[in-house]
């Protein structure tokens, strides 16, 4: 898919105030510093569509960007644990779970994980929450350029094994990306394009 236009539309914390037309949307989420803003800028080819910053936990907003005037890219805030948490759902900020549960035009969530790290409990729990809630998602491994090919493959295989040893019977679609060298860009955009065509 060629990106011809990318426009910021609206930021808010309230799912009922998100755009009301029925264009399909794709939401990007992960822990802060995972490389989400860099990935969004890399995918859209706009240098500062999403604001990158080393400061964790900055914005707690749902940001809608209209791409090619026919789909939304949604930049969600980094998730974090609630201090007291009982169910897996209660662990995540309420407006995030509300977004996933109420946003009917959401086609797919992209959960970003840093490919250098051991699978993190919070990421696995967020994916479990999505799975339990019947929300389709894919995994995007970020910062692939930081590892040599062997280590990269080893980490991805390890991640899959941890999921299969846990709750999962199969691995959701996944992409290995780098915002530095644009690895995975064509694959992620082709995936979105293919879903949009159907
Ligand atoms: P966010 O908090 O998830 O939006 O993360 P950012 O996009 O702001 O990135 C956090 C840090 O990781 C910044 O210093 C980025 O330059 C760096 N970073 C993000 N993606 C990549 C990548 O693909 N490769 C490398 N080498 N660094 C990255």
UniProtKB/TrEMBL annotation:
Database matches in InterPro entries: G_ENGB_dom (IPR030393), GTP-bd (IPR006073), GTP-bd_ribosome_bio_YsxC (IPR019987), P-loop_NTPase (IPR027417)
GO biological process, one term: division septum assembly
Endpoints of the signal sequence: none
GO MF annotation: an example: GTP binding
The entry's keywords: Cell cycle, Cell division, GTP-binding, Magnesium, Metal-binding, Nucleotide-binding, Septation
Domain of life of the native organism: Bacteria
Domain EngB-type G: 22-198
Cofactor needs: Mg(2+)
Homology family: Belongs to the TRAFAC class TrmE-Era-EngA-EngB-Septin-like GTPase superfamily. EngB GTPase family.
NCBIfam families in the cross-refs: GTPase_YsxC
Function, in words: Necessary for normal cell division and for the maintenance of normal septation.
Name of protein: Probable GTP-binding protein EngB
Gene name per UniProt: engB
